[in-house]
């Protein structure tokens, strides 16, 4: 039995981790620390057994120290972050505050309670990061490994790179037991509809444009969020302190292929799900038209990275991690979840 502090546990990846861990480790207690910004949703983790939500800010070092000490927490799983690249371009300050200063606050609290107070308690601070810290790849470049040079190109990825360095420094300077995982693009249930897949799914259902940046050929590796949770579990169970592990989905696809998958899945859904045309009468598929008719090319994002790809050899060999589902299966499951959980995402349409 263990007590875990999950920062950002009411967000997309953190919320899925809470569901996953509670199911796989029912004897453990989860303390979720989340300040419930626009992307945090209390309903994401409502009803999860042995889970408590503490509404607070990771930059409140005293609060984090209190939780670590009073709840006898031995593991921090740090998801809390500003993560939308477009928002970082228009407002980078929030990314510096949360991703850098917030991570430093957590590390200070962990050092104070786990090391300076001399409790001797075994501990682990696991930091969730992104493949975006590595920069952009050319079409023929080898995939990112853990030794790839950091070359962040957006305020978001720069802030995550800085937080990665802080985590590493706290291990090498103070002896804090840390691990870091750098993941590829996540998708799945409970994702806030500003990211590509939920945005395009919901736009398709409502007959709104599908805005495609540039030529639509930017390449990403796609990772189902449950596979990501499995990878984090593997890091916590078998990762070596001070080490970094890349967690990928094994589905390197251009954005246009992802969008075409979404359009095809929506079209199929309207042929097999009773009443869908009545629920979403504005969808082209409800009118006998292809969802792909909504595709619209727009001006490319500033500094848009061309390609990401993950080399997960280290995670496979050292942690026995491998993704468990392909993209076609995952995108079909994701669409089904959104169709079955309109009560979760509908209130977010006005935020």
TrEMBL record:
Enzyme's top EC category: lyase
Keyword Lyase tagged: yes
UniProt feature coiled coil, ranges: none
Top-level lineage group: Bacteria
Family annotation (SUPFAM superfamilies): NAD(P)-binding Rossmann-fold domains (SSF51735)
CDD domains (UniProt xref): dTDP_GD_SDR_e
Enzyme Commission identifier(s): 4.2.1.46
InterPro entries according to UniProt: dTDP_Gluc_deHydtase (IPR005888), NAD(P)-bd_dom (IPR016040), NAD(P)-bd_dom_sf (IPR036291), Sc_DH/Rdtase_CS (IPR020904)
Keywords, alphabetical: Capsid protein, Lyase, NAD, Virion
Record flagged with keyword Ribosomal protein: no
Domain NAD(P)-binding: 5-334
Needed co-factor(s): NAD(+)
Matches recorded under PROSITE patterns: ADH_SHORT (PS00061)
Protein name per the record: dTDP-glucose 4,6-dehydratase
């Amino acid at each position: 039995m263990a007590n875990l502090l999950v920062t950002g546990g009411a967000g997309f990846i953190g919320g899925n981790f809470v569901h996953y861990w509670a199911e796989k480790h029912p004897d453990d207690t989860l303390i979720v620390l989340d300040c419930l910004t626009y992307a945090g949703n209390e309903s994401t983790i409502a009803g999860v057994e042995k889970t408590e939500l503490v509404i607070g800010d990771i930059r409140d070092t005293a609060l984090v120290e209190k939780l670590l000490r009073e709840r006898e927490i031995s593991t921090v799983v740090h998801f809390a972050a500003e993560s939308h690249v477009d928002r970082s371009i228009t407002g980078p300050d929030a990314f510096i505050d949360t991703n850098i200063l917030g991570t430093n606050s957590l590390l200070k609290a962990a050092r104070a309670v786990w090391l300076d107070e001399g409790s001797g308690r075994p501990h682990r601070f696991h930091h969730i990061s992104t493949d975006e810290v590595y920069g952009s790849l050319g079409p023929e470049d080898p995939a990112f490994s853990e030794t790839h040079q950091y070359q962040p190109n957006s305020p978001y990825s720069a802030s995550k790179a800085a937080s990665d360095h802080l985590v590493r420094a706290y291990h090498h300077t103070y002896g804090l037991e840390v691990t870091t995982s750098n993941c590829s693009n996540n998708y799945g249930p409970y994702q806030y509809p500003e990211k590509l897949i939920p945005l395009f799914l919901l736009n398709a259902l409502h007959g709104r444009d599908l805005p495609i940046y540039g030529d639509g050929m930017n390449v990403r590796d796609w990772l189902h969020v449950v596979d990501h949770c499995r990878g984090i579990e593997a890091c916590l169970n078998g990762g070596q302190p001070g080490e970094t592990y890349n967690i990928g989905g094994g589905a390197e696809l251009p954005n246009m292929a992802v969008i075409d998958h979404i359009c095809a899945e929506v079209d199929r859904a309207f042929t097999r799900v009773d009443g869908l045309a009545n629920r979403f009468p504005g969808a082209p598929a409800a009118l006998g038209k292809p969802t792909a008719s909504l595709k619209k090319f727009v001006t490319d994002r500033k500094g848009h990275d061309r390609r990401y790809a993950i080399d997960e050899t280290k995670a496979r060999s050292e942690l026995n991690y491998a993704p468990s589902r392909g993209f076609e299966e995952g995108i079909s499951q994701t669409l089904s979840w959104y169709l079955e959980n309109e009560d979760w995402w509908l209130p977010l349409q006005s935020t």
